[in-house]
Every structure is written in structure tokens, then in C-alpha cells.
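Long-time lurker, first post.

We've been arguing in lab meeting about whether zinc ion would sit comfortably in this protein at all. Half the group thinks yes, half thinks no, and nobody has a model to point at. So I'm putting the question to the forum: if I give you the sequence and the SMILES, can you give me back a predicted structure of the complex? Inputs are below. Any interpretation is welcome too.
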Amino acid sequence: MLLLNVPYEEKDEAKALGARWNADIKKWYVFSEKDYHKFDKWIARKKHNTIICDRIYVIVGMMKCFRCHKQTPVVGIGIDQFFSIEDERSGKRNYSFNNEDIHICPTFPELPVELLDYLSKNYGVRTDYSKTVQASYIANHCSNCSTIQGNFFIFDEVDSPFFITNSETVKDLTVLKYKLPYDIACTPSIRYSSTDDMIKKYADIKQLTL
Ligand SMILES: [Zn+2]
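Top reply:
Settle the argument with this. Predicted structure of the protein with zinc ion, as C-alpha cells:
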């Protein structure tokens, strides 16, 4: 299920294409993944290139805070089922569905409120304003000194807990599978690594229910 941003004037058009109305949250939505491509112009205000479907993975690793040098948990989001959307030369948008290994996203997509709450209480993940990029974004913070932990530092340094080289590095991670209340249209950066298949193979994946 995916929520749509349908302006009032366009509601008849959306309805004719099969959109349904949710009176509780007062939003139009599309139920079946197979129909998402028909609703492209209402899926997000900013142009999205990905729709994360059904579930995401909360992947927790431990690393040393660069400021206080104590160990802190850091979180990366993993995705395995998603649409990739490409602009074609004709101006059409092509939706292709992927069902793959778990790939880690070094930036957080927009997350359901319940999940962000959980990550904030348990792992110091919360929204911050960055002067450098002049935008709000979701970031990891040290559990000891609250200092923001930059994405480059967490995901791209050689000693990153998310650098998977063998089964042991996977076993050091906590992997939680979270069923999404609705699918997420976003533009995440997805990191493809040749060892992504090891996550499903070796991780003890637990269900996260909130
Ligand atoms: Zn610290």
C-alpha cells in the first residue's frame, strides 16, 4: 500500500485509475504494487527513484565514537524489495521491481513515525539539521556523548561495522526485519556490495514489531 498526494481537483482522475480513499488519515492510496506506476505524479512531491516495498531491515553495528572514543551502536537501513524508477527518453517513468539480497542504504529514507521513535529511544537515531547541506535529515548519534556520527564515517571507513567481509562480520550485526505499515517513496543512496548475500545467509534476522 502506498499513500498518494492527490490535489482535490485531481481526485476524480485518481479515483478513475483505481485509487482508494482512506477516511481515517484523509489520503488517497493505491493498494497493489502492480499499479504503482500508474500513479507516479501523485506518489511524492519531490521526484523519487525508489519505492521500498513491504519491509525494511534495521541493521545495528557497534563502532567507536570519533569524539569520546567509546563504543556506540550505529544503525543502517537495509532493503531487499523495492521498485527502481528510471526516466526514459520518451519522458515516461519506468518502474522495475527488485527482490534481492539485503542492500544497505547509507542515508535514511523517510521512516514511519513509530519506527523513528523506536530508533530514537534505543539507538540515538533522530532528525537533525545540517548547516552544511541546509536540510534536515535523520542521523546517528553517539549513545555516550550525543555527538552526531557522520554517514561517511559510519559507512565508508575501512573499519565500518557495515563492511561485510565474512560470516563473522555479519554475526556482529543485529538485523531486525520491520513490516512497513505502508510503502515508502524516496531517493535513498543504495550501496551495492558483492557480499550483500551474506546478510541473509548468516544473520540471525529477528522480527521487529512495534
Ligand atoms: Zn561519543
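For your lab meeting: The two ends are 19 Å apart (CA to CA). The mean pLDDT is 93. Whichever side wins, do check it experimentally.
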